Amino acid sequence: MTVASPKQHESIFIARLVQQAKKQLTGQLDIQSASGERWTVYFCVGRIIWATHHNRSVRALRYHLSRISPELEFKSLVVREADRFFSWDYQVLWVLEKRKTLSMEEAGMAIKETIVDCMFDILRHEQQGALQFKLLKHEALNMLRMQLVALNVVALIKKAQAHYRQWRNSKLAGIDPDAVPSIVDAANLEANVPAKVFAQLRKRIDGRTSLRELSCIVNVDLVRLARSLAVYIHKGWISVLPAPDIPRPLPPIDKPATSQTEDRRQLLIACVDDSPQICELMKKIVTEAGYRFVSVTDSVRALPILLEKQPNMIFLDLVMPVANGYEVCTQLRRMSAFEATPIVILTGNDGVVDRVRAKMVKASEFLSKPVDRNKVLATIERLLLLSAPPAI
Protein backbone atom coordinates (compact mmCIF):
# COMPACT_ATOMS: atom_id res chain seq x y z
CA MET A 1 0.00 0.00 0.00
CA THR A 2 1.30 3.43 -0.95
CA VAL A 3 0.63 6.26 1.47
CA ALA A 4 1.01 9.83 0.30
CA SER A 5 2.55 12.13 2.87
CA PRO A 6 0.74 15.30 3.92
CA LYS A 7 1.97 18.47 2.26
CA GLN A 8 3.37 19.76 5.55
CA HIS A 9 4.78 17.74 8.40
CA GLU A 10 3.79 19.92 11.32
CA SER A 11 5.08 17.46 13.91
CA ILE A 12 7.21 14.43 14.63
CA PHE A 13 3.99 12.73 15.68
CA ILE A 14 2.51 13.15 12.19
CA ALA A 15 5.73 11.88 10.63
CA ARG A 16 5.58 8.78 12.86
CA LEU A 17 2.00 8.05 11.80
CA VAL A 18 2.85 8.33 8.11
CA GLN A 19 5.95 6.18 8.61
CA GLN A 20 3.98 3.34 10.22
CA ALA A 21 1.32 3.54 7.53
CA LYS A 22 3.99 3.19 4.82
CA LYS A 23 5.47 0.20 6.65
CA GLN A 24 1.97 -1.35 6.84
CA LEU A 25 2.25 -1.73 10.59
CA THR A 26 -0.03 -4.11 12.43
CA GLY A 27 0.35 -3.10 16.04
CA GLN A 28 0.26 -0.03 18.23
CA LEU A 29 2.09 3.26 18.65
CA ASP A 30 2.17 4.44 22.28
CA ILE A 31 2.62 8.18 22.83
CA GLN A 32 3.36 10.04 26.05
CA SER A 33 3.53 13.82 26.52
CA ALA A 34 5.91 15.76 28.75
CA SER A 35 3.04 16.25 31.22
CA GLY A 36 2.36 12.51 31.46
CA GLU A 37 -0.71 12.27 29.20
CA ARG A 38 -0.81 8.93 27.33
CA TRP A 39 -2.41 7.82 24.07
CA THR A 40 -2.26 4.69 21.90
CA VAL A 41 -2.93 4.52 18.16
CA TYR A 42 -3.73 1.04 16.79
CA PHE A 43 -2.89 -0.02 13.22
CA CYS A 44 -3.93 -2.99 11.09
CA VAL A 45 -1.87 -3.42 7.91
CA GLY A 46 -1.02 0.27 7.82
CA ARG A 47 -4.50 1.62 8.46
CA ILE A 48 -5.72 3.05 11.75
CA ILE A 49 -8.48 1.10 13.48
CA TRP A 50 -8.62 2.83 16.90
CA ALA A 51 -6.99 5.39 19.19
CA THR A 52 -7.52 5.99 22.89
CA HIS A 53 -6.58 8.67 25.40
CA HIS A 54 -5.70 6.62 28.48
CA ASN A 55 -6.19 9.54 30.86
CA ARG A 56 -9.88 9.95 29.99
CA SER A 57 -10.94 7.05 27.77
CA VAL A 58 -14.28 6.41 29.53
CA ARG A 59 -15.27 10.08 29.48
CA ALA A 60 -14.39 10.28 25.76
CA LEU A 61 -16.46 7.19 24.98
CA ARG A 62 -19.46 8.62 26.85
CA TYR A 63 -19.13 11.90 24.95
CA HIS A 64 -19.01 10.31 21.49
CA LEU A 65 -21.86 7.89 22.22
CA SER A 66 -24.01 10.75 23.54
CA ARG A 67 -23.51 12.59 20.24
CA ILE A 68 -24.08 9.61 17.95
CA SER A 69 -26.79 7.77 19.92
CA PRO A 70 -28.31 10.12 22.53
CA GLU A 71 -30.96 7.57 23.55
CA LEU A 72 -28.31 5.06 24.65
CA GLU A 73 -28.04 4.80 28.44
CA PHE A 74 -24.31 4.95 29.10
CA LYS A 75 -24.47 3.64 32.67
CA SER A 76 -26.05 0.42 31.34
CA LEU A 77 -23.00 -0.44 29.19
CA VAL A 78 -21.58 -3.02 31.56
CA VAL A 79 -18.91 -5.06 29.77
CA ARG A 80 -16.34 -7.24 31.46
CA GLU A 81 -12.93 -6.55 29.89
CA ALA A 82 -11.83 -9.44 27.67
CA ASP A 83 -8.18 -10.35 27.11
CA ARG A 84 -8.48 -10.41 23.33
CA PHE A 85 -9.39 -6.71 23.18
CA PHE A 86 -6.69 -4.07 23.27
CA SER A 87 -8.83 -1.50 25.11
CA TRP A 88 -12.11 -1.53 27.01
CA ASP A 89 -13.59 1.50 25.23
CA TYR A 90 -13.12 -0.14 21.81
CA GLN A 91 -14.60 -3.38 23.15
CA VAL A 92 -17.79 -1.52 24.10
CA LEU A 93 -18.20 -0.20 20.53
CA TRP A 94 -17.43 -3.66 19.12
CA VAL A 95 -20.10 -5.28 21.28
CA LEU A 96 -22.66 -2.56 20.52
CA GLU A 97 -22.13 -3.06 16.78
CA LYS A 98 -22.22 -6.86 16.98
CA ARG A 99 -25.53 -6.70 18.88
CA LYS A 100 -26.89 -4.15 16.37
CA THR A 101 -27.38 -1.58 19.13
CA LEU A 102 -25.22 0.65 16.94
CA SER A 103 -25.16 0.38 13.16
CA MET A 104 -21.83 -0.13 11.45
CA GLU A 105 -22.05 3.48 10.24
CA GLU A 106 -22.61 4.77 13.78
CA ALA A 107 -19.79 2.66 15.21
CA GLY A 108 -17.51 3.82 12.39
CA MET A 109 -18.40 7.45 13.08
CA ALA A 110 -17.61 7.05 16.79
CA ILE A 111 -14.28 5.43 15.94
CA LYS A 112 -13.31 8.08 13.41
CA GLU A 113 -14.22 11.00 15.69
CA THR A 114 -12.40 9.44 18.64
CA ILE A 115 -9.24 8.99 16.57
CA VAL A 116 -9.37 12.57 15.26
CA ASP A 117 -9.87 13.94 18.80
CA CYS A 118 -6.86 11.93 20.02
CA MET A 119 -4.70 13.26 17.18
CA PHE A 120 -5.88 16.80 17.93
CA ASP A 121 -4.93 16.38 21.62
CA ILE A 122 -1.51 14.98 20.74
CA LEU A 123 -0.81 17.88 18.36
CA ARG A 124 -1.67 20.35 21.14
CA HIS A 125 0.57 18.61 23.68
CA GLU A 126 3.43 18.38 21.20
CA GLN A 127 3.60 22.18 21.20
CA GLN A 128 4.21 22.07 24.97
CA GLY A 129 7.09 19.61 24.96
CA ALA A 130 8.68 16.61 23.26
CA LEU A 131 6.67 13.42 22.94
CA GLN A 132 7.92 9.91 23.71
CA PHE A 133 7.04 7.05 21.38
CA LYS A 134 6.99 3.28 21.79
CA LEU A 135 6.15 0.80 19.02
CA LEU A 136 4.63 -2.66 19.60
CA LYS A 137 3.71 -5.15 16.87
CA HIS A 138 0.70 -7.48 16.99
CA GLU A 139 -0.37 -10.66 15.22
CA ALA A 140 -2.34 -9.69 12.11
CA LEU A 141 -5.12 -12.28 12.46
CA ASN A 142 -5.93 -11.17 16.00
CA MET A 143 -6.30 -7.57 14.85
CA LEU A 144 -8.43 -8.59 11.85
CA ARG A 145 -10.87 -10.43 14.12
CA MET A 146 -11.46 -7.29 16.17
CA GLN A 147 -11.41 -4.74 13.35
CA LEU A 148 -14.63 -2.85 12.70
CA VAL A 149 -13.24 -0.24 10.30
CA ALA A 150 -9.84 0.54 8.78
CA LEU A 151 -9.26 4.24 8.15
CA ASN A 152 -6.84 6.06 5.88
CA VAL A 153 -4.07 7.65 7.92
CA VAL A 154 -3.60 10.75 5.78
CA ALA A 155 -7.33 11.59 5.74
CA LEU A 156 -7.43 11.43 9.52
CA ILE A 157 -4.28 13.53 9.82
CA LYS A 158 -5.71 16.25 7.58
CA LYS A 159 -8.90 16.45 9.61
CA ALA A 160 -7.03 16.59 12.94
CA GLN A 161 -4.65 19.25 11.59
CA ALA A 162 -7.60 21.35 10.36
CA HIS A 163 -9.21 21.18 13.82
CA TYR A 164 -5.94 22.11 15.49
CA ARG A 165 -5.31 25.07 13.16
CA GLN A 166 -8.83 26.36 13.75
CA TRP A 167 -8.34 26.07 17.53
CA ARG A 168 -4.94 27.80 17.41
CA ASN A 169 -6.08 30.54 15.02
CA SER A 170 -8.98 31.29 17.35
CA LYS A 171 -6.38 32.10 20.06
CA LEU A 172 -7.45 29.06 22.10
CA ALA A 173 -4.08 27.26 22.09
CA GLY A 174 -3.75 27.60 25.87
CA ILE A 175 -7.17 26.09 26.57
CA ASP A 176 -7.82 22.34 26.68
CA PRO A 177 -11.18 21.53 25.01
CA ASP A 178 -11.56 18.66 27.46
CA ALA A 179 -10.97 20.90 30.49
CA VAL A 180 -13.79 21.44 32.98
CA PRO A 181 -14.80 25.10 33.50
CA SER A 182 -15.84 26.39 36.93
CA ILE A 183 -17.07 29.82 38.03
CA VAL A 184 -14.58 31.14 40.60
CA ASP A 185 -15.52 34.84 40.71
CA ALA A 186 -19.31 34.98 40.48
CA ALA A 187 -19.48 38.60 41.70
CA ASN A 188 -17.36 40.03 38.88
CA LEU A 189 -18.96 37.77 36.33
CA GLU A 190 -22.49 38.82 37.35
CA ALA A 191 -21.50 42.51 37.35
CA ASN A 192 -20.04 42.41 33.83
CA VAL A 193 -22.36 40.25 31.78
CA PRO A 194 -26.09 40.52 30.97
CA ALA A 195 -28.38 38.89 33.51
CA LYS A 196 -29.61 36.25 31.01
CA VAL A 197 -26.03 35.31 30.08
CA PHE A 198 -25.04 35.03 33.73
CA ALA A 199 -28.07 32.83 34.46
CA GLN A 200 -27.13 30.53 31.59
CA LEU A 201 -23.51 30.35 32.74
CA ARG A 202 -24.57 29.49 36.29
CA LYS A 203 -26.91 26.81 34.94
CA ARG A 204 -24.49 25.17 32.52
CA ILE A 205 -21.08 25.52 34.17
CA ASP A 206 -21.27 23.01 37.00
CA GLY A 207 -17.61 22.12 37.60
CA ARG A 208 -18.13 18.61 36.22
CA THR A 209 -18.86 19.08 32.51
CA SER A 210 -16.00 19.65 30.07
CA LEU A 211 -16.02 22.27 27.33
CA ARG A 212 -16.38 19.54 24.70
CA GLU A 213 -19.31 17.97 26.55
CA LEU A 214 -20.89 21.37 27.14
CA SER A 215 -20.80 22.18 23.42
CA CYS A 216 -22.77 18.99 22.78
CA ILE A 217 -25.33 19.74 25.51
CA VAL A 218 -26.05 23.29 24.34
CA ASN A 219 -25.64 22.37 20.65
CA VAL A 220 -23.05 25.07 20.00
CA ASP A 221 -19.87 24.62 17.95
CA LEU A 222 -16.93 23.87 20.25
CA VAL A 223 -14.72 26.67 18.91
CA ARG A 224 -17.53 29.21 19.18
CA LEU A 225 -18.31 28.12 22.74
CA ALA A 226 -14.67 28.22 23.83
CA ARG A 227 -14.16 31.66 22.29
CA SER A 228 -17.22 33.01 24.12
CA LEU A 229 -15.83 31.77 27.46
CA ALA A 230 -12.16 32.61 26.77
CA VAL A 231 -12.51 36.26 27.80
CA TYR A 232 -13.89 35.23 31.21
CA ILE A 233 -11.20 32.57 31.55
CA HIS A 234 -8.43 35.10 30.82
CA LYS A 235 -9.93 37.55 33.36
CA GLY A 236 -9.89 34.80 35.99
CA TRP A 237 -13.64 34.78 36.56
CA ILE A 238 -13.90 31.24 35.18
CA SER A 239 -11.19 28.64 35.74
CA VAL A 240 -10.52 25.55 33.66
CA LEU A 241 -9.05 22.39 35.16
CA PRO A 242 -8.07 19.07 33.54
CA ALA A 243 -11.05 16.73 33.23
CA PRO A 244 -10.68 13.63 35.39
CA ASP A 245 -11.83 10.37 33.88
CA ILE A 246 -15.10 8.85 35.02
CA PRO A 247 -15.60 5.27 36.30
CA ARG A 248 -16.65 2.55 33.94
CA PRO A 249 -20.33 1.59 34.21
CA LEU A 250 -20.92 -1.05 36.88
CA PRO A 251 -23.73 -3.60 37.32
CA PRO A 252 -26.59 -2.35 39.52
CA ILE A 253 -26.05 -3.47 43.11
CA ASP A 254 -29.70 -4.42 43.55
CA LYS A 255 -29.68 -6.89 40.63
CA PRO A 256 -30.77 -10.33 41.88
CA ALA A 257 -27.83 -12.70 41.99
CA THR A 258 -28.09 -15.95 40.01
CA SER A 259 -25.57 -18.73 40.02
CA GLN A 260 -23.56 -19.53 36.90
CA THR A 261 -25.17 -22.98 36.84
CA GLU A 262 -28.66 -21.45 36.74
CA ASP A 263 -27.59 -19.05 33.98
CA ARG A 264 -26.09 -21.84 31.89
CA ARG A 265 -29.19 -24.02 32.10
CA GLN A 266 -31.06 -21.31 30.23
CA LEU A 267 -28.60 -21.33 27.31
CA LEU A 268 -28.80 -23.70 24.34
CA ILE A 269 -25.68 -24.54 22.33
CA ALA A 270 -26.01 -26.05 18.84
CA CYS A 271 -23.41 -27.99 16.86
CA VAL A 272 -23.83 -28.51 13.10
CA ASP A 273 -21.32 -31.16 12.00
CA ASP A 274 -21.70 -34.19 9.70
CA SER A 275 -19.50 -36.21 12.07
CA PRO A 276 -21.52 -37.97 14.83
CA GLN A 277 -18.29 -38.37 16.79
CA ILE A 278 -17.66 -34.62 16.84
CA CYS A 279 -21.27 -33.99 17.88
CA GLU A 280 -20.99 -36.51 20.72
CA LEU A 281 -17.74 -34.95 21.91
CA MET A 282 -19.26 -31.46 21.80
CA LYS A 283 -22.34 -32.72 23.66
CA LYS A 284 -20.15 -34.15 26.42
CA ILE A 285 -18.15 -30.92 26.76
CA VAL A 286 -21.18 -28.62 26.67
CA THR A 287 -23.59 -30.58 28.91
CA GLU A 288 -20.95 -31.30 31.56
CA ALA A 289 -20.42 -27.53 31.77
CA GLY A 290 -24.13 -27.08 32.52
CA TYR A 291 -25.44 -25.90 29.13
CA ARG A 292 -28.25 -27.41 27.06
CA PHE A 293 -27.22 -28.92 23.72
CA VAL A 294 -28.63 -29.82 20.32
CA SER A 295 -26.78 -31.39 17.38
CA VAL A 296 -27.47 -31.43 13.63
CA THR A 297 -25.54 -33.87 11.42
CA ASP A 298 -27.28 -33.00 8.14
CA SER A 299 -26.38 -29.54 6.78
CA VAL A 300 -29.50 -29.55 4.56
CA ARG A 301 -31.74 -29.80 7.64
CA ALA A 302 -29.66 -27.34 9.68
CA LEU A 303 -31.67 -24.18 8.95
CA PRO A 304 -35.16 -25.47 9.81
CA ILE A 305 -33.89 -27.20 12.97
CA LEU A 306 -32.00 -24.13 14.14
CA LEU A 307 -35.03 -21.92 13.45
CA GLU A 308 -37.16 -24.26 15.55
CA LYS A 309 -34.70 -24.59 18.45
CA GLN A 310 -33.41 -20.96 18.47
CA PRO A 311 -30.00 -21.75 20.05
CA ASN A 312 -28.05 -19.04 21.86
CA MET A 313 -24.83 -20.08 20.10
CA ILE A 314 -23.91 -22.22 17.08
CA PHE A 315 -20.77 -24.25 16.33
CA LEU A 316 -20.61 -24.84 12.58
CA ASP A 317 -18.39 -27.34 10.77
CA LEU A 318 -16.63 -25.88 7.75
CA VAL A 319 -16.39 -28.99 5.55
CA MET A 320 -19.76 -30.72 5.05
CA PRO A 321 -21.42 -32.35 2.05
CA VAL A 322 -24.02 -30.39 0.02
CA ALA A 323 -23.68 -27.13 1.99
CA ASN A 324 -20.43 -26.07 3.65
CA GLY A 325 -20.08 -23.98 6.79
CA TYR A 326 -19.62 -20.71 4.92
CA GLU A 327 -22.85 -21.21 2.99
CA VAL A 328 -24.82 -22.14 6.10
CA CYS A 329 -23.36 -19.16 8.01
CA THR A 330 -24.31 -16.80 5.16
CA GLN A 331 -27.90 -18.10 5.19
CA LEU A 332 -28.12 -17.77 8.98
CA ARG A 333 -26.90 -14.16 8.96
CA ARG A 334 -29.63 -13.27 6.46
CA MET A 335 -32.26 -14.29 9.01
CA SER A 336 -33.20 -11.71 11.62
CA ALA A 337 -33.34 -14.46 14.28
CA PHE A 338 -29.61 -15.12 13.88
CA GLU A 339 -28.23 -11.65 13.07
CA ALA A 340 -26.54 -11.35 16.48
CA THR A 341 -26.20 -15.05 17.42
CA PRO A 342 -22.57 -16.06 18.01
CA ILE A 343 -21.51 -18.46 15.23
CA VAL A 344 -18.19 -20.29 15.56
CA ILE A 345 -16.63 -21.98 12.52
CA LEU A 346 -15.02 -25.37 13.27
CA THR A 347 -12.33 -26.59 10.88
CA GLY A 348 -9.18 -28.64 10.62
CA ASN A 349 -7.75 -26.16 8.10
CA ASP A 350 -6.44 -23.31 10.25
CA GLY A 351 -5.26 -21.09 7.40
CA VAL A 352 -5.25 -17.36 6.76
CA VAL A 353 -7.63 -17.66 3.78
CA ASP A 354 -10.17 -19.63 5.83
CA ARG A 355 -10.02 -17.11 8.67
CA VAL A 356 -10.50 -14.15 6.35
CA ARG A 357 -13.39 -15.89 4.60
CA ALA A 358 -14.98 -16.69 7.99
CA LYS A 359 -14.84 -12.98 8.80
CA MET A 360 -16.42 -12.13 5.44
CA VAL A 361 -19.47 -14.32 6.15
CA LYS A 362 -19.73 -12.64 9.59
CA ALA A 363 -18.71 -15.62 11.69
CA SER A 364 -18.05 -14.60 15.30
CA GLU A 365 -15.03 -16.83 15.84
CA PHE A 366 -12.86 -19.49 14.21
CA LEU A 367 -11.91 -22.63 16.18
CA SER A 368 -9.44 -25.28 15.03
CA LYS A 369 -9.96 -29.02 15.20
CA PRO A 370 -9.31 -31.33 16.96
CA VAL A 371 -11.89 -30.02 19.42
CA ASP A 372 -10.29 -28.90 22.67
CA ARG A 373 -12.50 -28.78 25.77
CA ASN A 374 -10.87 -25.72 27.32
CA LYS A 375 -10.97 -23.72 24.08
CA VAL A 376 -14.62 -24.61 23.45
CA LEU A 377 -15.71 -23.56 26.94
CA ALA A 378 -13.60 -20.39 26.87
CA THR A 379 -15.19 -19.45 23.51
CA ILE A 380 -18.70 -20.05 24.86
CA GLU A 381 -18.05 -17.98 27.97
CA ARG A 382 -16.56 -15.11 25.99
CA LEU A 383 -19.14 -14.89 23.22
CA LEU A 384 -22.20 -15.57 25.31
CA LEU A 385 -21.02 -12.99 27.82
CA LEU A 386 -21.05 -10.43 25.01
CA SER A 387 -24.43 -11.47 23.66
CA ALA A 388 -26.37 -12.35 26.80
CA PRO A 389 -29.43 -10.08 27.30
CA PRO A 390 -28.37 -8.53 30.66
CA ALA A 391 -25.20 -7.08 29.12
CA ILE A 392 -25.08 -4.65 26.23
Give the percentage of residues in beta strands.
5-15%
Shape: elongated
Largest sheet: 5 strands, parallel
Kindly state the mean pLDDT as a whole number? Answer: 86
Q: Uncertain runs with pLDDT below 50, 5 residues or more?
A: 1-9, 253-259, 387-392
Looking across the biggest beta sheet, what order are the strands in? 8-7-9-10-11
Radius of gyration: 25 Å
What structural class do you assign from the helix and strand content?
A: alpha/beta
Distance between the termini: 37 Å
User: What's the helix count?
Assistant: 16
Count the strands?
11
N-to-C SSE series? HEEEHHHEHHEHHHHEHEHEHEHEHEH
Helix content: 40-55%
Describe the structure.
The protein is of the alpha/beta class. It contains 16 helices and 11 strands. Helix 2 crosses helix 4, helix 3 packs antiparallel against helix 4 and helix 4 (104-126) packs across helix 6 (153-169).
SSE topology:
Elements: H1 12-22, E1 27-32, E2 38-44, E3 47-53, H2 57-68, H3 88-98, H4 104-126, E4 132-137, H5 140-146, H6 153-169, E5 180-183, H7 186-192, H8 195-204, H9 211-217, H10 222-235, E6 238-241, H11 260-265, E7 268-272, H12 276-288, E8 292-296, H13 302-309, E9 313-317, H14 325-333, E10 343-347, H15 352-360, E11 365-368, H16 373-387
Parallel strand pairs: 7-8, 7-9, 9-10, 10-11
Antiparallel strand pairs: 1-2, 1-4, 2-3, 5-6
